Amino acid sequence: MPQKNSNPLLRASRLRQCHWKKSNADDVTNGIPRSLQTMTNMNLTILDGYALNPGDLDWSVLKQFGNLTVYPRSAPELVIGRAADSEILFANKITFDESVFAQLPKLRYIGIFATGYNVVDVEAARRRGITVTNIPKYSTDSVVQLTFAHLLNLSFKLSEHTESVRKGDWSRSPDFCYWIGSLTELAGRTFGVVGYGTIGQKVARIAEAFGMNSIAYGSRLTPGERDGSVRFVGFNELLETSDVVSLHCPLKDDNVKMISIAQLAKMKPTAFLLNLSRGGLLDEAAVADALNSGQIAGAGLDVLTEEPPNPANPLIGAKNCFITPHCAWGTLAARQRLLQIAVENLRAFLSGKPQNVV
Predict the structure, then answer these.
(1) Positive or negative, the Cα torsion across 92, 98, 102, 105?
(2) SS3 category, 336
(3) Would residue 14 count as lying in a domain?
């Protein structure tokens, strides 16, 4: 027997203060059934919109659904007051748990402006008939691009050379060229992908374009099998044989600090570690120690466990550790796709055909 209120259209129909009118199912405008356009009092609130839209996108695409309120940021103590009258919420890094849901009886839908949704207690949302959606695959190309920006920086010491030239070292050099330390050619090296989803697969293919040999580990992959030229291996084998270890997996209860002392000890001293997924995948103190001691050669990171980070984070200032401020998703093209998918997710929910539900 189906669960009570499992149909999102039925849930949507119970939105308080919303008034539906009968119309022909084919009577649509801008892709929205006319009956949904007559919900005159539906309230939509964006709780932390600045990261997605610092001013170069247009929120008006969401106004077609109801009364839209946008907050650039919302401190935890402000969330309930700002969300109390809304049936529809959008957020990026706001935490939603049972205690929050208990204080938001009107809430029927949360659209997360991200692929990861660990900020939401999904089970608690389901118990209360609240649909939660995310935004998959919008930033694949941008994340892959920054992955290799970090790798190229590490392999050719781009930051160090640029700073050296800026300081006048080249102008004072007795030779026409110089380089700092050892430079790494990628061709012929092994690129290990941890997490073989959409991003991981594309990273593996582009690594091969550099002449690298790609291997992959994932909880659903069978070691010994292949996806074309990409060979699937166990986690230990990946750590032991890879010249680059690149993390592209979601953060879950069973992989918190998946890279810690024991795993770092298996890696080559010449290996680079890349993390453009979630900061919690790393034991940050252990990684900092490994970098400072020369146990691994370098790290390129776009995420940290705490964001914004505490200035005392051991990775900030660690040897050969290069950190970007969670900006892989920040290209205009990626953010435009994100907003468009968010609009499509809400339209699908209100039409009774929800998509990207988590």
Answers:
(1) positive
(2) helix
(3) yes
Q: Amino acid identity, residue 88?
A: I
> For residue 355, is it within any domain?
no
CB 181 within 8 A of CB 157: yes
pLDDT at residue 32, rounded to an integer: 45
Interval 259-276 mean pLDDT: 98
Counting every residue written for the chain, the total comes to 358
Query: Is 278 one of the annotated active-site residues of the chain?
Result: yes
> Which entry of 108, 161, 326, 347 is annotated as an active-site residue?
326
Find all residues with CB under 8 Å of 250, minimum gap 6, and list them.
115, 116, 118, 195, 277, 278
* Token output for 298: 């370098």
Residues 229 and 264 in one domain: yes
pTM of the model: 0.86
Catalytic (active site) residue 226: no
302, with CB counted inside 10 A (0-12, 13-18, 19+), is: buried
Q: How confident is the model at residue 41 (pLDDT cuts 50, 70, 90)?
A: confident
Q: What is the DSSP letter of 64?
A: G
* Residue 132 structural domain: 8-136+334-350
Q: Which of 11, 278, 335, 337 is catalytic?
A: 278
Residues 116 and 165 in one domain: no
pLDDT in tens, 275-319: 999 999 999 999 999 999 999 999 999 999 999 999 999 999 999
- How many distinct structural domains can be found in the chain? 2
- Which tokens go with 67? 């009364």
The sign of the torsion formed by the CA atoms of 142, 117, 326, 240 equals: negative
d(CA 318, CA 297): 11
307 labelled catalytic: yes
In a domain, 300, yes or no: yes
Q: What is the percent of the chain where pLDDT is above 90?
A: 88
For residue 6, give the 3-state DSSP assignment.
coil
In single-letter form, the type of residue at position 252 comes to K
CATH for 98: 3.40.50.720
Q: Is the pLDDT of residue 11 over 80?
A: no
Same domain, 59 and 115: yes
